[in-house]
Each structure stands twice: as C-alpha cells, then as structure tokens.
Specification:
Strand order of the largest sheet: 3-2-1-4-5-6-7-8
Distance between the termini: 41 Å
Order of helices and strands: EHEEHEHEHEEHEHHHHH
Number of domains: 2
Strand content: 5-15%
Number of helices: 10
Largest sheet: 8 strands, mixed
CATH topology of the largest domain: Rossmann fold
CATH class of the largest domain: Alpha Beta
Helix content: 40-55%
Length: 260
C-alpha cells in the first residue's frame, strides 16, 4: 500500500503541529507532507525537514490523498470552491474549523467525497491534544484517526456533538488554565513564591488527571480518598462550593455552548 500524501492548507500553529507530529511519530515521511500558507516565510523552515511548502493550494492538492483545511471558518467554503477541480473522488477532506457542517461542504464538493470534521485543542503543540472527530464515511476513518493521533488522543463522536466538543475539549483548555492560575495565586497567598507554587500546582493537576485516566474512576471516588473526616480538604471543598465553584463552571460551559 502506497504512503498517502497529506496536504495541509492554512499551515498555522495547528497545521505545523500536525505536520511535525506526523514526522515525529513516524506516521509519514517528510516528503509526503505538503503545506500551503500565504505567509510562506513562516513555514520555510519545514522545507529543511524535507516537506513541500507552497503559497498556492493548486500546487499541493492534486497530489494529496488527504486534505486538511486548517483555516478560519469563514474561509472553508471559499477554499473548497477553489480546490474542488483538483480533488480525486477518493480524496479525504478534513476540516478543523468550528461550526462548518459536513452538509455545507457537501454542497460544494459533492456527497460522495469522504468528509471529516476534527476538533483538536492547543495541546497539539506538545502532542497532547484531545481531538474529537466525526465524518460522513467509513472510508478514510482509520486514516484520519491515524493523523490526529500524531498530536495526541482521538475520539469519534456524532456531528451533532461537535459544538459541545469545541466547548469541552478546546475552550476547556482555557477553563483548566484559569483554574490552575487560581490555584497558583492561592499558593502564593499562603506562602509560596509563584515559581514554586506553579511547579506544585501544574504537577498536581497532571497527577489528578492521571489518576482518572489510569484508574478509570469517577472523580468523586478519588476525592473520597483525600477527604478525611473533619479534615482540611473537605472544609476547603465545601467553602469552594458555597462560593459557587461547580455551578459557575457549569454555567460558563453552557454560556460558551450557547455562543457557538
């Protein structure tokens, strides 16, 4: 089976992360990755790795087996109209743009084209993204999954959940970082310098996530292991809840979802 070429249109931070991840994880050779961007000077360094870079989409799409649209949502349909003449029937299209439905893309390039949507998050930069994926075809599913596993973990969902995936998985990075910031500020208030507090908090957040990932338990089961009767943990948790900790987070998630 021949190695499939991957073309990334709009190679910004995410596109570059995917390209570098594919090579790093040895899922593609550099010469099988093609990238386009108007500001081509920002991806010139990828040529030194052996990748093909261009300012023109028409130069990379005809030889691509997979085309990833890593552009702003308002540009997706415009670019599909541009590249439609260069697509093969088997060319797999993947959009990482928020809010552009598969049906809208089908109106431009046809119902038979394998089309997928993917929602990674900014942790793609360190190959730890959680990418939610949906598609209109089983054809190409394994290929798309393989690509996004080069930047982290993947999960397939229905398209009706893609907006929710954006809020929980992509916006969620900001929510967690704001929680971490507050933890660090609290650490400083009780005596740590900011650098030490940051190291303790970030590792603790990582520890908590690993407990859930490796043990597969509900968060409350792990919380119960820490909250001893009349202890300092339970009084802290109860005070946070009195101040609206959980409810404010849930309301924030719902507000973001309504905005989409």
């Amino acid at each position: 089976m021949k190695t499939k070429n991957v073309a990334i249109i709009g190679a910004g931070n995410l596109g570059i992360s995917i390209a570098e991840g594919l090579v790093k994880k040895q899922k593609r050779k550099a010469e099988n990755i093609l990238l386009s961007r108007n500001q081509i000077q920002k991806i010139e360094h990828l040529k030194k790795m052996g990748m093909i870079v261009s300012q023109k989409n028409a130069e990379i799409v005809p030889v691509a087996d997979v085309v990833i649209l890593a552009v702003k949502p308002y540009k997706v349909l415009e670019i599909l109209k541009e590249i439609q003449p260069y697509l093969q029937p088997s060319t797999i299209i993947v959009s990482v743009a928020t809010g552009i439905e598969i049906s809208s893309m089908q109106k431009i390039i046809g119902n038979q084209q394998p089309i997928f949507r993917a929602m990674p998050n900014t942790a793609a930069a360190v190959s730890e993204s959680m990418s939610c994926i949906c598609g209109n075809s089983e054809e190409g599913r394994k290929e798309v999954e393989d690509i996004f596993q080069s930047i982290g973990e993947t999960i397939f969902i229905t398209e009706k959940l893609m907006n929710a995936a954006t809020v929980v998985g992509a916006c969620g990075i900001a929510y967690v970082l704001r929680f971490i910031r507050a933890m660090i500020q609290g650490g400083v208030e009780i005596g740590f310098d900011s650098q030490t507090a940051s190291k303790i908090v970030t590792q603790t957040v990582k520890d908590a996530a690993e407990l859930l990932i490796q043990n597969g338990l509900h968060p409350e089961q792990e919380i119960d292991k820490v909250t001893t009767p009349k202890g300092c943990t339970i009084v802290g948790l109860n005070e946070m809840e009195h101040q609206g900790f959980s409810s404010s987070l849930i309301k924030g998630i719902k507000t973001s979802f309504e905005k989409i």
